[in-house]
Amino acid sequence: MEHKKYQNRLLYEKSPYLQQHAHNPVNWFPWKEEAFNTANKENKPVFLSIGYSTCHWCHVMAHESFEDEGVARLINEIFIPVKVDREERPDIDKVYMQVAILMTGSGGWPLTIFLTPDKTPFFAATYIPKNNQYGHKGLIEILQQVKELWKYQQNKLLEQGNQLIDALQKNSVNLNGEILTNEILERAYQEFSDRFDNKAGGFGKAPKFPSPHQLLFLLRYWKRTENEQALAMVEKTLQSMQAGGIFDHIGFGFHRYSTDKNWILPHFEKMLYDQALLSMSYLEAYQMTGKIIYSDTARKILNYVTRDMMSEEGGFYSAEDADSEGEEGKYYLWTEKELKDILDKDEFVFVKKYFNIETEGNLYKKGQPGEIFGNRNIFYKGFQEQTRADITKEIVVSDTGKWEKIREKLYGIRAKRIPPDKDRKILTDWNGLIIAALAKAAQVLEDEDFLEAAKKAADFIFRRLEDSSNHLLHRYSEGDAAIPGFLDDYAFLIWGLLELYKATFSNEYLQKALDLNKVLFLDFWDEKNGGFYFTSANNEQLLIRQKEVYDGAIPSGNSVAFYNLLKLADFTGNKQFKQRAYQLLKAFSPMVEQNPSAYAYFLTGVDLLYL
Questions:
Q1: Total domain count, the chain
Q2: pLDDT score of 385 more than 70
Q3: pLDDT score at 391
Q4: Would residue 570 count as lying in a domain?
Q5: Is the pTM of this model over 0.70?
Q6: What is the number of other CB atoms lying within 10 angstroms of the CB of residue 367?
Q7: Mean pLDDT on 139-159
Q8: Domain CATH code at residue 27
Q9: 68 lies in a domain?
């Protein structure tokens, strides 16, 4: 519970995540020079905590430690504490996440970094429990140890931090390589094939993330080679995800990832970027196969987005939380008794059969993540063991008009529950992705409503998040637009504008894409080694100026910019765009050569280049 008797400097911030911590007893500062000047003046290290508003483990650490007066007293005594919203300041998050990976071998959120007053890191961790457990030190013990180290071994910590910065800087240098040939596509396909889960779809083991840009690559690979296994991997994955609990069968949209390999038990956040990229994957699968299950799923995703995530002004909100009433997933789960009370006997029998409803709860397994949900059920269709044809047949049977009537009844009941919090900040980059998805859906599904939503969102960005010289801002919240745009803001919005141009043939959208692309080269391009930096020359300068091409939860800005350049070359006939694309390809080819499947969206550009 929040301690309303306290308030700190976060009270005046616009980020929903920072506002969540505005009444902690921790004396949080936002990331501003005031914090580091204070740390320097008082000779204190900085306690940097990075998270986001819909992050479950961020909430857990906040409740355990940041709302605890004893822990807060320790943090305030030893440190100058600084809170950062990773979605508002991805530049800070990316730099210090690299630090965490270098120091610990892994990353995640909440991200906890201890810094010197000049922002040099010397400790990194993710979630830290309040007290010692399972052989790991708790936050209280770590804080006390740092107090002693800072007092008696400060020089050693500074030396350790400087070594980290040297390693970061070495890792950030990219050297030009050779032009990749289309042989790299074969290697990437083989890597995906080797990791493919034949039983449940997806790649690797639990937890499983949707990673829709990987499916987009495989669809293009199938189109190029007619390799049926490539299409089979895509279809198995798309159908298993749609059948699983990771898809919200009652209200639509996809949750962030699955904690199990069968896509049944999700981590319950809903992120705007997942809806955008997944809807594009389902749309392209529909284009290539003609199967209604894919167009229907894409339409449901975008119906959810336009219904629940669109602001009155036309921009799209960032995310919905995993938790409601302090419990993860509570909004989405049902007991068998609840369903019996709501539905008539015939409806209940139908739901129990097709959605695996159990008296003891279909998530309960002793010692497994689902144990915490007790006798509650998630709606999922468990057909992962069947063939693609069987899955399609079963899903069609359960998606009859009868199910739609039941779904509407359950949706009406669920809507009366206390909903998860919504992160109402509007991000330019994620809006670029949803504009691309809506415009693509307008073309593929011939749906004018989706086109109007895409145009309205683009108009919102132009009106609220762009200045007269075509420079973008990253974030809009509570009437306030702020933070100079990053690479992803430009690249993803250009992607959306190019899809709008294809849907409307309005030169306005093509010209706007060209204008933004010009700014991209002026402010982000590395003239020495090629490729785009994540931050512009006008952004705050951090420990390093990062340049990345790895396609993680979403495609990298460089991957999207690469693809955009090739499309701009096609649309305008200007060969300079293709020449720039070749320079970008050479800049990152050594990295892509090492592990091709980690750069799936970048390779969709390679595929387009060699069509």
A1: 1
A2: no
A3: 46
A4: no
A5: yes
A6: 6
A7: 93
A8: 3.40.30.10
A9: yes
